[in-house]
Amino acid sequence: MNSLNVNRDEMDDADFRAEFRAFLAEHYPAELKQDFHRPFRRLRGEPANDWQRTLQKHGWRAPAWPRESGGMGLSFRKQLIYHEELEHAGVARIIDLGETQLGPTIIKMGSPEQSEYYLPRILNCEHVWCQGYSEPNAGSDLASLRTSAELDGDEFVVNGQKIWTTHANDSTHIFTLVRTGKFEKKQQGISFLLIDLDTPGISIRPIINLAGEDEFCEVFFENVRVPKANLVGELHQGWTVAKALLGYERVWIGSPALAGKALALGEHLVQQLGLEDDRGVMDELAQLQADLHDYRLLYSRTCDAIADSGKAPGPEVSMLKVYASELLHRLTEFNVEIGAEYGAVVGDVEIGGVSTADMQADLYWQLMMARPVTIFAGANEIQRDILAKTVLGLQA
Amino acid sequence: MQEMDEFIAMLRDSAEGFLADFQASPGAKTEIAVPRPLNRELWTAMAELGWLGLLLPESQGGLALPVSAAAELADVMGRYRFPVPYIEAAIMPAQILAAADNEALAAELISGETLFSLAWQDRAGSDAAFAACVLSDGQISGQKSFVAAVEPGSQLLVCVSSVNGPAIVLVNSDADGITAQRSATASGSFCQLSFDKVTCTPLLAGTGAEQALASAIAAGRLLASAFLSGLSRACLRDTVDYLNQRQQFGRKLSSFQSVSHRCVDMHIHIELAEAVWRVAAEAGDEASLSAAKARASDTAQDVCRQAVQLHGAMGFTEECSVGEYLRLALQYGNWLGSAKSMRRAFQSARTAEALA
Ligand SMILES: Cc1cc2nc3c(=O)[nH]c(=O)nc-3n(C[C@H](O)[C@H](O)[C@H](O)COP(=O)(O)OP(=O)(O)OC[C@H]3O[C@@H](n4cnc5c(N)ncnc54)[C@H](O)[C@@H]3O)c2cc1C
Known about the structure:
The complex is a heterodimer of chains A (396) and B (356). Chain A is an alpha+beta fold and 396 residues long.
């Protein structure tokens, strides 16, 4: 039950939307909003936790979790409204993998003890989780991962290395895929293991990204002893555990929200630079506007179908991730190109207005932060392989 | 002719050695989003190689080489992702000093002792240069945008308008009445400069000033095109090396057709870019020069962005060379004419040629 014990899922859609909109207007700090300078702003660390606790206090946390687990128990349709309103209000994104990935996994596949212990701590941000799947030699080919966990009495002993772990340096815990056995198929013998980052033998090294930020990390494990009780699901069945939520992940990554922010920046730039009479620029802008408009319709249609079916999303949702991320690329590239010399700047620059006030922008940042969306959560090449095989029936 | 070819081969060779050494040195690493001062020791070494005075006439102590030779050098610089404002602080100012026939200033530029910046651009996305700053009573007032490599003690060559038409004047960047707003670029920084009644020394006036600026911009565009072409080639080469070595699914990434075909497409664009800048370097006409800059700007940005993707998460790290290529591609691809504006310039030049 969430802290207020209200059931917002029973509300009428329009009322629900209005109430959440009003809540965000009242409570979300204006200085943390996404803006033209940071159109894809993300929160991490304390500001992120503070905001999550505010949501929690008012019963707006964990929209997808069942009410008995402390979430809002929203239908998929209401979750969509929830996300639309976050976008509308310019609320910065938070990568809360405890809420979006681990919680639902534990609810579905974990033990009652795990639910009881971990779920409340995720909700109150006492535990902040990161995802330790990728390794230096296991990226697209995740199943070839080698970080090992060997049983020794009541404990696993973990050795190996994870990489590209987003926000490991801001997290308290990591959920991992580790190799517990060798079988014929490499997807077998992988287990899903929860690890406290304070455990001796773990070291974390941040990696600076193309935007100059330390968002992802390397995580090293040297004889790290992890209680056997931290295994989620059956031994050797981690691949199935991890895959159970992939469809939802692709739906959320396919959200048109980021593209919407990039387009708003582009539209503002066109005015700022006085390009409204430039036919070539306006044609390109029209293309992008139409593409985003059409994509929003496809996105709703796909999401409605998922909501109506009551089933988990199928492989067809890979198309959402592919289109949305590549549209985001094109939008951010358009913004750089029409920015002309401003597009040559790496970092902050004041863009003089033709008829408006100057604006602070960072066209480099938005271009860079759009890059990895086609890489993470299954690179687009891999998504196309999935679509070719499962949706079109193209044979390998 | 043959003598020139041999000379260019030597120039490229010595540049390769120098730039490879520099690239391996700690100073080659550039920080993201931080304006960077010019490395004066490196600049002096470039002066000793004769690079700063490459295009200046012998009478002024230069090497009097054709601009095509400088473009060869820029191509090599691109291949080593050289993050130094050579075009901005050597090539473009030298065209102005050559026209001004000022031996003393030329000597300072050639020796690397004094830094020069050409403050020409009135506003973004335009070649307009003589309206935003006004000269009256020996003082200038107004604005200049995207002025590269302005350092303490730099000499600024400022394009201004006066009652007698356009002019280019000299002011010291430390002079009273100048304020600068600085932002970071791959090769160092851009400044937005404001001048408030700054006392100046006249250098060029009238059509002489206009022609000097036109030749500085043309040389800048040509070298930027060659630089971007060389840079694209190196970025693709690094990417091919990575794909040949990185394995996933028990195979080299290079063996996946969707990967290898993209590399081939990039290669075709790079060949186009090189073909065009080489012709522009010899012909020097407006149409081929604009075409060269348009092609190179598009190609370099596209190649570098794709290189990020093909490197996977590695391509999104600051550590990986791809980011350095990409930032330089953004700089020289969007400064001195974006692809779109250069295609338009190409179209106008073609139309004008057809009418002539
Ligand atoms: C910003 C960011 C955050 C991340 N956060 C996390 C995290 O929190 N936790 C985590 O575990 N991981 C994380 N990752 C890692 C991410 O999941 C991997 O980057 C992704 O799986 C790709 O693996 P790779 O980077 O090793 O690229 P590779 O697999 O080496 O691929 C390189 C390139 O080759 C292409 N390629 C690979 N195989 C094929 C094929 N069969 N056919 C055609 N092309 C192919 C890829 O599409 C890509 O373009 C993050 C990555 C990024 C960029």
